[in-house]
Amino acid sequence: MPLPATDHQYRADLLQIACRLHQLRCRSVGINQTATVYQSVWDDNNVLCQEFHRMLFADIQGNCHISRYYDGWL
User: Fold this and answer.
1) Residue spans of beta strands (DSSP E) within 5-51
2) Please, what is the Cα angle at 36 between 46 and 73, to 5 degrees?
3) How far, in Å, CA of 48 to CA of 62, rounded?
4) Which of 20, 56, 67, 68 could crosslink 74 through cysteines, CB 3.0-4.6 Å?
5) What are phi and psi of 26, to 5 degrees?
6) 57: three-class secondary structure by DSSP
7) Spatial distance between the Cα atoms of 28 and 17, rounded to a whole number of angstroms
8) How far apart are CA 74 and CA 72, in angstroms?
9) What percent of the chain has pLDDT over 90?
């Protein structure tokens, strides 16, 4: 749905209502369920990022002395 470009207050009100409805939905569902739904997506992306990092920085990986503080991320 395109928003009218000339009515700034209407656009602001509509966007604020959408944000508040989203927050209400999150509260009614419960943050734990929301986290459960998106946790697998985050985990997949996290694994992908770690593998990409290892591929790019494989030569420095062995010399890194701070990686133990970052769960092996560095």
Assistant:
1) none
2) 20
3) 20
4) 67
5) -60, -40
6) coil
7) 16
8) 6
9) 16
